[in-house]
Amino acid sequence: MINVELSSIWSCVSLPQLLSCEKDLFDAHLHLRSNQPNAPEFLGWLGQPDALTAKTVHAIRKACETISGQCDTLVVAGAGEGYLAAKAGIEAIGGRYRNLLDSRMRILFTGDSLASSDWIALCRLLEGHDFCLLLLSSEGVELEMCAASRALRWLMERRYGQSAKERVYVSARQGSGLAVMAKEEGFTFLPMDGCLGGGASALNAGTLLVMAAAGIDPLGVLEGAAEGFSQYDLRAFENPVWMYAGARYALTQKGRSAEILGCFTPDFGAFGAWWEQYFMRHTCQEGAGALPVYVGLPGGLDGLDTMMQGGEKRAFETLLQVPERCFQKVNIEMDWKDYDGLDYLAGRSVGEVEQAAYQAMLDTHAAGDVPVIVLEGETMTPAALGELFYFFELANAIFACACGIDPFDLPRVLPSRQAAAAILGKPEENA
């Protein structure tokens, strides 16, 4: 279970003020559990750990075994929360250097860029390697993702001929253009369950397939999410989800309009990108909610400290800690010329220094009227990963509903994408 520490928020929000949010949180949580008109499509993720049955897990494992026999590299072309979650899960478990350190399947991500240099670099990485392609998007309408899909399928046809279609896998929402293409072209299709309006749950079949290809047990991830489904259903402040959602709600009511998520391990940088997009898309509507910003620590401390020393305070911070991945004992060596003046640290561990930076941040920011919410896990296993995704999805949904925001009523195609299509000459009848 995620431990939530709120002792550093009391300078801005009192305990009675936090407890006064109870009715709004209760109503929001009850709303999510009730049978709303859009529940079949938008709220399926709430029971998703159970919805993704053994049959689905079997399909994921079967596809993973086939991919392992076909290639040494899986290219994931995608967009949206499911795509970001796949990368986040791999790096949270295997580390950001996983492709360089793990002799198993390489996982390459594309579809989130329109830069020609990115495509050229990807082609170079694929030289001398057999690869498969996974198209991962709830809707499959994103320009950058679709451009990557076309280019990669063309490359595969040139290299593998008629057998290329056997190397293409698709995970998308039923009824989407991607789903239709998969059926008509004979690609392996895994339906994306638990859609969130215009987005997707972190734990959809496509995301889990990517994790499985990276050696992460999909059943373990789902079991962790199922455990979260059970233990985070309590409608009271003893529930850690309520503590986090309630603190965010109370702080935004006090005028704190931005939330900064920080983590002291770079392996969670991709997770931060998922969190940032997920919270922004599903909460920041109609001037409500809190603008989410991820900052890697301790590198981002300079910027945070500068902000803290400014005038009116508009932000609060959330620190995500996994002690197993932080504060490890790697000693600092002596430098006989002491150019950097750090010989006083010689013989001490990097973990000690990191712990000191962490504690100093808590102390100085709390003293500087910047409230800090601390979220702490124990270890990063597949089960812990599933629980962590579910924790944030549920917390944000409760927070949004308490604010009067429908976090799932999202447009299929965003205005900027429509505008780009118009500039490029897309016919109006298809816009």
Strand/helix succession: EHHHHHEHHEHEHEHEEEHHHEHEHEHEHH
Distance between the termini: 46 Å
Return Rg in Å.
23 Å
CATH architecture of the largest domain, by name, is: 3-Layer(aba) Sandwich
The profile of the biggest β sheet is: 5 strands, mixed
In CATH terms, the superfamily of the largest domain is Glucose-6-phosphate isomerase like protein, domain 1
Q: Describe the strand arrangement of the main beta sheet, using strand numbers.
A: 1-12-11-9-10
Protein model, in words:
- The termini are far apart.
- The protein folds into two domains: 3-34 and 232-402, Rossmann fold, CATH 3.40.50.10490; 44-218, Glucose-6-phosphate isomerase like protein, domain 1 (Rossmann fold), CATH 3.40.50.10490.
- Helix content is 48%, strand content 14%.
- The strands form three sheets. The protein has a five-stranded mixed sheet with strand order 1-12-11-9-10. A five-stranded parallel sheet has the order 3-2-4-5-6, sandwiched between helices. The chain has a two-stranded antiparallel ribbon with strand order 7-8.
- It contains 18 helices and twelve strands.
- With 431 residues, it is α/β, with parallel strands linked by helices.
